[in-house]
Amino acid sequence: MPTSSSSDLELPDLPETPDTTGAYPRLTDDQIMLLSRYGERKSLTKGTKHPGEAYVLLGNAEQQLGNDDAAAAAYQKAATYPNTKKMAESWLHNMKIGSKPAAKKE
What we know:
Elements: H1 29-38, H2 51-64, H3 68-78, H4 85-97
Helix pairs in contact: 2-3, 3-4
């Protein structure tokens, strides 16, 4: 069976499912651009019982998205917490040798 990357796939132009209840608000391209320039992130650890683990998960997500600098920063933050220090350092090492977190199988 031939394999292809997602960029090789030709997907039909499907209409977006309407959000009739407003449960999933969508931002316009202009709003996203404005937020990327002037928005700020909220604290990841505020109210979190396991902040080190939150940073490891953030690092994994950023790495899966190809944001290696952001992933490394998250892993470095995770390494400052005793319960995730070894795990974070392991992920930083894996990044240096080119390993990525496994994608979740559905």
